[in-house]
Write a structure and sequence with these properties.
This protein is α/β, with parallel strands linked by helices and about 170 residues long. Helices cover about 25% and strands about 25% of the residues. The protein has helices at about 50-60, 80-90, 105-110, 115-120, 150-160, and strands spanning about 1-10, 20-25, 45-50, 65-70, 95-100, 125, 150. Helix 1 packs parallel to helix 2 (about 80-90) and helix 2 (about 80-90) packs parallel to helix 4 (about 115-120). The chain is globular. The mean pLDDT is about 95.
Length: about 170
């Protein structure tokens, strides 16, 4: 399956716990003021890659704890990321997904555009738009204090956001 990405990082330590392969998707509707990755906003930029190529890169790094889907907005390409996420989980790795949407919006519209499928393969969800006025250097793996670190699987079972510590 094809995916439009802005790039990847093979061994990130800032996009979730442990050593992570991070995929920065291309295209984002949120346009948050002060966004860390404004170059990912255009839906026309980046490059198109095959998810199987990304999976081979992931398999090639034995030090990885998991994979992070970042952005851009991953839920704009939920189908391809859900497929890749399933394969990542089969390798015994965890999946973290960043999103500018809230869990509540994703949950209420989980039948839309494969959102539910991406939620199903996500272990932890960092949700909410980046808010420059709430920028906080002290919180782990989030840029602003309104963003939550969510146990996605527990949240799906309970039908509400279940926050946890990274």
């Amino acid at each position: 399956m094809k995916l439009r990405i802005a790039g990847t990082v093979n061994d990130s330590i800032v996009d979730g716990p442990g050593i992570r392969f991070t995929i920065f998707t291309q295209g984002c509707p949120h346009n948050c003021e002060g966004c860390h990755n404004p170059q990912t906003h255009s839906f026309e930029g980046g490059e198109i890659v095959d998810t199987d190529e990304l999976l081979e890169k992931i398999k090639g790094n034995p030090l990885l704890d998991g994979v992070t889907f970042s952005g851009g907005e991953p839920f704009c390409q939920a189908e391809a990321l859900a497929e890749l996420g399933k394969k990542v989980k089969e390798l015994g790795m965890n999946v973290i997904t960043y999103t500018g949407y809230t869990f509540e919006k994703l949950w209420s519209e989980r039948d839309k555009e494969h959102w539910g499928e991406l939620l199903e393969v996500t272990d932890h969800l960092i949700d909410g738009p980046f808010v420059l006025a709430k920028k906080d250097w002290e919180i782990k793996f989030r840029g602003s204090s309104n963003q939550r670190y969510i146990d996605c699987q527990a949240s799906l079972k309970e039908g509400r956001a279940v926050e946890c510590e990274p």
